[in-house]
Design a protein that fits this description.
With about 325 residues, the chain is an alpha/beta fold. The protein has helices at about 10-25, 80-85, 85-105, 145-165, 185-195, 215-225, 245-255, 280-285, 295-310, and strands at about 5, 25-30, 50-55, 70, 110-115, 165-170, 175, 200-205, 210, 215, 235, 240-245, 260-265. The structure holds uridine-5'-diphosphate.
């Protein structure tokens, strides 16, 4: 049986990874300091092979016994979170990654770290391939997240090359699904909450900036395949279907049957104008591609938000 540590295991992606790996018969140690994660995301798990440890991975991590895999998913990930917690965001991406690398070295574990499409910044190459180095403002408001993740990639590759650790780096593009928080602040949860509560939909800028949204179950499957692969270089995982934020707002209005109006607010500083993953590498080497259609993914996400808001689902 495999023994696996998931940092950030009570977060949106971390909790889905806990479920997935428990289903694959792993023993799962879920670690989280609950800064942006929540015990509500893991309260359904009733399994002898599951343990929760409340700990901030910025501090030394002590785990008794063997560890086969480590998945490092601890970090604020929504722009409003990393603006509110800039120093913890920098520390978990740098010191936290250093700690999980040290642990992987000691335990001879395979380590996968969660990186991000934000390493490409406001990209000048479109769609983004893994060999694009990005266009990031290090001192802008998003720099705390972007540079922490870029550092995380650099130190991970250094441990891989210098200490021969088997490391994987997933560059995660925009993802959505159940267990995003009502107050997450990212586009899809904001739009769904606003649509369901009859409030105005807040599109930033003129809504012409683009993103490409992947449903969570597709993303988790891609991450698992990468974990089991022999790829050590960064790999994009995301859904390449690109749309404007205005189109997404319209989709949410249609899917919820809401009559909310769209209001246009100022665009946050350094907000990327376009984003779309090139997933040729994942398709070729992981035999992976996203399968869940937007309508289907939005429906489950809307149902989840309805439950959170105490609205009955049909
Ligand atoms: N956005 C928006 N309204 C919102 C939240 C986000 O128009 O209420 C925009 C945001 O400016 C960005 C896009 O939606 O252009 C995606 O933002 P999100 O926070 O989901 O993630 P990002 O891709 O910027 O990390």
């Amino acid at each position: 049986m495999h023994r696996t540590l998931i940092t950030g295991g009570a977060g949106f992606l971390g909790s889905h990874l806990c479920d997935y790996l428990l289903n694959k018969d792993h023993e799962v140690i879920c670690m989280d300091n609950l800064l942006t994660g929540s015990l509500l995301n893991i309260k359904h798990i009733k399994n002898d092979r599951f343990n929760f440890i409340e700990h901030n991975v910025t501090n030394f991590i002590n785990i008794d016994g063997p560890l086969d895999y480590i998945l490092h998913f601890a970090s604020p990930a929504s722009p409003i979170d990393y603006l509110e917690h800039p120093i913890p965001t920098l520390k978990v991406g740098s010191l936290g990654t250093h700690n999980v690398l040290g642990l992987a070295k000691k335990k001879k574990s395979v380590l996968l770290i969660a990186s991000t499409s934000e390493v490409y910044g406001d990209p000048l190459i479109h769609p983004q391939r893994e060999d694009y180095w990005g266009n990031v403002n290090p001192v802008g408001p998003r720099g705390v997240y972007d540079e922490a993740k870029r550092f995380a990639e650099a130190i991970t590759m250094a441990y891989h090359r210098y200490h021969n650790i088997d490391t994987k780096i997933v560059r995660i593009f925009n993802t959505y699904g159940p267990r995003m928080r009502l107050n997450d602040g990212r586009a899809i949860p904001n739009f769904i909450k606003q649509a369901l509560t009859g409030n105005e939909i807040t599109a930033f800028g003129d809504g012409s900036q683009t993103r490409s949204f992947c449903y969570v179950s597709d993303l988790i499957e891609g991450i698992y395949r990468l974990l089991m692969s022999d790829i050590n270089d960064p790999t994009n995982i995301g859904n390449p279907i690109e749309m404007t934020i205005k189109q997404m707002a319209d989709k949410v209005l249609q899917a919820t049957g809401s009559h909310s109006k769209i209001t246009y607010l100022s665009l946050p500083e350094d907000d990327p104008k376009v984003r779309q993953p090139n997933i040729d590498k994942a398709v070729k080497y992981l035999d992976w591609k996203p399968r869940v259609q937007l309508d289907e993914g939005l429906k489950s996400t809307i149902d989840y938000f309805k439950t959170q808001l105490g609205i009955e689902t049909q």
